[in-house]
Amino acid sequence: MKPYIFITRKLPEETILELTEKFDVKMWEQEDFPAPREVLLAEAKKASGIITMLSDKVDEELLSAGENLKVIANLAVGFDNIDLKAATERGIIVTNTPDVLTETTADLTFALLMATARRIVEAADYIKAGKWEGWSPYLLAGHDVYGKTIGIVGMGKIGEAVARRAKGFGMEILYHNRSRKPEAEKETGAVYRSFEDLVSTADYVVSLAPLTDETRHLFTADVFAKMKKSAIFINAGRGPVVDEQALYHALQKKEIAAAGLDVFEKEPIPTNHPLLELPNVTAIPHIGSASTDTRTAMIKLCCTNVKAVLTGDSPKSIVNKAVLQ
């Protein structure tokens, strides 16, 4: 009997051939909507492997239901949706998709920065609404990017890629990270700063920090109050690192100039969310790695990891290496 694999979204058949040729594979039929909790639990009871998304909660309940589970492959770099400790205790390998999305996510992050700074979405809506009746000197005037100071919080591979783009725009690059990055400093001219110094100095504060106990609600009312009134906040990392109520008040009170957000505390964000009411917020639906080439590469990496585990080989990108010890 072939091992059974469940995939929590509908993916193109050609991207999962590596699995369908060797295993019994079932996909949830909705491409854009998650499988209900009861479906996930029922499938976990049968599956040897599951390919999950960031919005899928892989907790103690689900893992304990998966008596045959050997591998969880998360279609993302992040994995805070998975109880890593519980998975490791059960000998279940957890994998993610690093590296293949670095440059694509950096592209999106810098695009979001520029769109927010230059009010691109607001301007597009303005002209589509038929409001453009003439030219005036400060019509939809935004903020310069070239030559300004960017502060990157979370200098992982994506942060380094954003720094390379910022260098091309002649920006002064500051960064804060758990550890210094000498090679990135040499390549981009980035300067390490304390978190407090960075947020008070940068014209653009870009959060690419992972979600941990230490970074949850890292950006509070006090932090936003320390930023320049002209500062623009960009979050393309993890939503819960931001206290969204504090961000809303900072924007509403004009303590900071604007925000560009690809991620949110709870996703999908409801249409009546207060942040969406503000004209100085550019909000997009967690599409950091959403290019066709990159998403295909991510899917294929998940498939390669699942196949490796179920055939007794080592996966390419394991998160909980302790499970192999």
Automatic annotation (TrEMBL):
Gene3D superfamilies documented for this protein: NAD(P)-binding Rossmann-like Domain
Recorded superkingdom: Bacteria
EC number from the UniProt entry: 1.1.1.26
Top enzyme category: oxidoreductase
GO molecular function: glyoxylate reductase (NADH) activity
InterPro entries: D-isomer_2-hydroxyacid_DH, D-isomer_2_OHA_DH_cat_dom, D-isomer_DH_CS, D-isomer_DH_CS1, D-isomer_DH_NAD-bd, NAD(P)-bd_dom_sf
Domain D-isomer specific 2-hydroxyacid dehydrogenase NAD-binding: 110-288
Pfam entry (one): 2-Hacid_dh
Residue ranges of every copy of the D-isomer specific 2-hydroxyacid dehydrogenase catalytic domain listed in the record: 5-320
CDD domains given in the database record: GDH
Keyword list, A-Z: Oxidoreductase
Protein family membership: Belongs to the D-isomer specific 2-hydroxyacid dehydrogenase family.
PANTHER family reported for this sequence: 2-HYDROXYACID DEHYDROGENASE-RELATED, GLYOXYLATE_HYDROXYPYRUVATE REDUCTASE B
Protein name, UniProt field: Glyoxylate reductase
Organism per entry: Mesobacillus stamsii
Taxonomic lineage of the native organism: Bacteria, Bacillati, Bacillota, Bacilli, Bacillales
